Amino acid sequence: MTPLTQARPLLSPFPPSLLAGSRDGLAEVLATLAEAIDTASTAHRPAGPLPAGTPAEVLAAATEALGAAELPAEGLGAKAALQRLATVLVEHGIDLSHPRAAAHLQPPPLAVAVAADALASAGNASLDTYDSGPSAIAVERWLIGVLTRLAGLGERADGVLTPGGSLSNLMGLLLARDAASFRRGINAREQGVAALPGPVVFCSELAHFSTHRACAALGLGEAAVFPVPVDERRRMRPDALAAALDALGPDRTPVAVVATAGTTDFGSIDPLPEIAEIASGHGIWMHVDAAYGFGALFSERLAGRLAGLELADSVTLDLHKLGWQPAATSVLLVSDTTAFTSLDREVAYLNPVDDAEAGYDGLLGRSLQTTRRPDAVKAAATLLTYGRTGLGRMVDTCHELARHAERRILAEPELELVAPAELTTVVFRYRGNARPAVLGELNGALRRRLLESGTALIGRTEVKAAGPGSRTRVCLKFTLLNPTATADDIDGLVDTVLDAGRTCERLIEEGAA
Ligand SMILES: *Cc1c(COP(=O)(O)O)cnc(C)c1O
What is the pLDDT of residues 292-320, one digit of tens each? Predict the structure, then answer.
């Protein structure tokens, strides 16, 4: 025997179940995981959506439960490892399925979506090339087909999954930038944007900050953002947009209008048909940031509010908001597939021309990423499981919860409704009998008190009062995304806020005395 053959192992020291893709590898470990979650939930689940304690206390407890930051010489085995992590996450983590979890556009994910996500992870396909996962490509194309049809974007429409609404907005503006450059005879991808004179991106003053970030990242500069004023219902004013466009000098290049369909705080939807008409009249790109609002299309009752979405050149939507997916499940849709040309790439080891011509091609040319998770799998499983009616009912239920919260707030003299429920958020503040001068401090303290007690998780924001030159006010926000919550749960949430408000008011007034 030669040393060479001796060195070659004929048998692996590992069982096939080491790998998730093996026949029973995943089933075995999922059973262990289910047991670990059950044990941790029975023994340690906090009473509220958050563990009680200050941030330092909560983080210290979670760190301690994890054990020393040392790679163990010998592994603990899956059972002990999963048990430990289940304890850390359940005992010291967030419980979004709790009916008093109402802070952010961060839904409790659907069980079926999480299971399908495990299936996707087990396969570990990637979307960039044919030979990194053909069926994952089929699933993404299926999902894009379903969503472009739901949006009414037409036969030439296309799309791609991205790691979040911020990135979908970045991509939408990238395509808009390249289209605007192209019209000026500039190849922005190769030459950069220095040659593009005075770029301008219009959006409402309530647009998500990722629009500003995207402008910075794309070399347009944050100064390119032109914030258009909103009306009393917090929607972009088309007359103000038209006036701003008409006033642009010849040294400026309008790159895009970003309309928001569902502002993060208020759920307000810009008037899409009017904005589309203005954008098309000036020959500029219309991007609709429907990260939050797109889910309204599932609801027969609310879908009409998104009329005009079909006129967009590109659309951002987050199924990890009103879609109940675990993050990340965001999508950028375009009305015309040729928009993706500016992302096309030919890479010798991924998509050589002769392979691509023979059909061995993936989705590399639609994304800024190379390796890309099959995030469409969980979304496809969800849409197949519940259909439009099932998802619509979830949207309607959350909308109804928000309407109930709005009525309750209106009926409470200690609370002030700041913005009504358009979709599934309600903005308000606690007033009690406090002096106006302390209301900002009071509402901030109230929310932190709830966080520290762990009894309720609510949002906070700042809202400009109506009228020119007015100051912003600290407000509280419910973001209601739990379709299993009830009106009683909302009443309990409001009561919890009132209790905390009265306590904070007393503490502040005593402190001032
Ligand atoms: C949440 C949100 C975004 C950002 O999406 P992420 O997935 O958090 O990156 C963009 N626009 C609007 C209107 C949003 O509500």
Answer: 999 999 999 999 999 999 999 999 999 99
For residue 207, the ligand 1 atom closest to its alpha carbon is 13
Task: Tell me what pLDDT residue 412 has.
Answer: 98
Between the CA of 317 and the centroid of ligand 1 the distance, in Å, is: 8
Cα-Cα-Cα-Cα dihedral of 403, 408, 413, 419, to 10°?
Answer: -20
CA of 214 to the centre of ligand 1 (A): 12
DSSP type of residue 261: B
CB of 166 closer than 6 A to ligand 1? yes
Cα–Cα distance, 479 to 484 (Å, whole number):
14
Q: Does the Cβ of 165 fall within 6 Å of ligand 1? A: yes
Per the structure block, which two tokens stand in for 129?
């090339």
Which residue, 110, 156, 120, is CA-closest to 140?
A: 120
* Residues 6+ away with beta carbon under 8 Å from 4: none
Q: How far is CA 72 from the centre of its chain?
A: 36
Asked whether 314 and 330 are in contact (CB, 8 A), the reply is no
Confidence bin at 81 (pLDDT 50/70/90): very high
Q: DSSP letter at 325? A: P
> Is the pTM value of this prediction over 0.85?
yes
In the block, residue with structure tokens 């303290």 = 445
- Check if the beta carbon of residue 450 is closer than 8 Å to that of residue 500: yes
* Over residues 126-146, mean pLDDT: 96
What pLDDT, on a 0 to 100 scale, did the predictor assign at position 1? 47
Local confidence band at 41 (pLDDT 50, 70, 90 cut-offs): confident
Domains delineated in the chain? 16-95 (no CATH), 125-372 (3.40.640.10), 389-512 (3.90.1150.170)
Rounded percentage of the chain residues whose pLDDT exceeds 70:
97
Tokens of 49: 């959506």
